[in-house]
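Saturday, quiet lab. Running sequence design on the structure tokens for the scaffold JK sent over.
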């Protein structure tokens, strides 16, 4: 299990750039990448063969067991901790994403 710090990876929009970022992490084979639900990189990762991309609220044991590697972004790991601890419900992820967008000046 690896964690990517910072926002740079989550803001990648091109499949080629996302693929190269995974190669730099020596991530080969079937993998699971967990990113925030609204992260731009989500669409780029979906186009890479062998990569399953999930938001923290969709994390499940089957995908974890069937992966050669697992990568979390820093923000996704924090959200996964909240979700798995029961501190935040699945419906609250949409509210959390909206709040972060407002804080970031997006709307």
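Result came back. Writing it out in full:
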């Amino acid at each position: 299990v690896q964690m990517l710090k910072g926002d740079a990876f989550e803001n990648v929009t091109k499949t080629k750039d996302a693929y190269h970022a995974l190669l730099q992490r020596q991530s080969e084979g079937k993998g699971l990448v967990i990113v925030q639900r609204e992260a731009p990189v989500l669409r780029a990762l979906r186009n890479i063969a062998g990569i399953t991309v999930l938001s923290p609220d969709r994390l499940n044991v089957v995908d974890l067991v069937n992966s050669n590697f697992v990568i979390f972004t820093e923000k996704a790991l924090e959200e996964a901790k909240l979700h798995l601890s029961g501190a935040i419900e699945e419906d609250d992820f949409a509210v959390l994403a909206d709040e972060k967008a407002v804080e970031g000046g997006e709307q």
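Notes for JK: The two ends are 33 Å apart (CA to CA). The mean pLDDT is 83. Ask whether to fix the surface positions before the next round.
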